[in-house]
Design goal:
GO terms for molecular function: nucleotide binding. It comes from Paenibacillus cremeus. By secondary structure, the protein is of the alpha/beta class. It has 13 helices and 15 strands. The chain is globular, with a radius of gyration of 22 Å.
Length: 399
Amino acid sequence: MPMSANRKLKIGLIGLGNIGGHHVNYLSTMDNVELVGVCDINKAKADEVAAKAGTTAYYSHTELFDKSGLEAVIIAVPHYDHTPISIEAFERGLHVLCEKPLAVHVNDANKSIAAYEAAKQSNPDLVFGLMFQERTFPFYMKIKNFIQSGELGQLTRATWIHTDWFRSQRYYDSGDWRATWAGEGGGILTNQCPHTLDMYQWLFGVPAQITGHAHIGKYHHIEVEDEVTAYFEHANGMIGHLIVTTAELPGTNRLEIIGENGKLVYENEKLVFYRNRMSMLKYSMETEGKFERVETWYTEIPVNTKVATGHKVVTEKFVRKVLTGQGELIAHGSEGVNGLQIANGIMLSSFNKQTVNVPIDGDAFESKLQELIKTSKFVKKSAQAEAAATSDFSKSFSV
């Protein structure tokens, strides 16, 4: 049974890097949460954060699970560790809110989902959430509503140029684990773009076929991808394009969605609908003209931006679900595999230089990843770990 809404949820936090520190800050403002412990393998960091937050420091997730009395955990560690920690949490009957991405590859994602489903057999009210906070952004929510309303009619194309992810060489040098196959399991698709990939599948669904072109260390001294172009084909006939990079200045975030009734464009915090007077598909088949175009009307779609967004909103929904059993999560944990199907599919297609079907061959991708890790001879020029700790990470939330 759900807990009482009149009590505080005992939460533990694992991972005290940049995003972990952000979690600590907003958790301190939530009246229905008790932060019973923070955990990091960096003992000095754990002690420092615990002292500021008025809680207990732990140096391993097992110690946190054994001693803190937590009921739920926020997982904010490097990507590979999401899988074993989430699995152990579910085995202990803990509610889980995991940072993006759910895992590095689909096989690991499915392991976490399977562990959750198994735990639910004895605890049906167990909650599994993902930190896809961009689903709370007003423009994306409006686009989702617009598509669901049917105003665009049959969708034919979606093109997303999302190159507003600039990262310098110093950023990549700020930790030994960054932008390595062994440390992160990938580059822009694994680190910067899980939100973009989740948003794509949230709006349009997972494509049936993927053709990807990923450039490895094209603009940075790294061993993973920093520029990607992908082409998608959906079962309903819609096609999609994705263009992303961490090298471009000034960057672009332009999402163009074509439906039979017109074109919806999101760019520069503006949403515009170019409405066709009639369906372009119907017009094409019925018009007597050969070159004449259907009349189109320009309409700016109003979007209420004065709403709460971000990590805290996701966590509030999660906590409410745990305490009362009511409301909906921003993103359920089981949805995390969808974006990974796209990310892994792009890379598998690029590695093999051929189109791949979705669901992808998870074993083939995992095998390739392990091969890249085993054969890596990449050596970083520098590893300024402290630079990451002192960075203003909030600057990355807007892109």
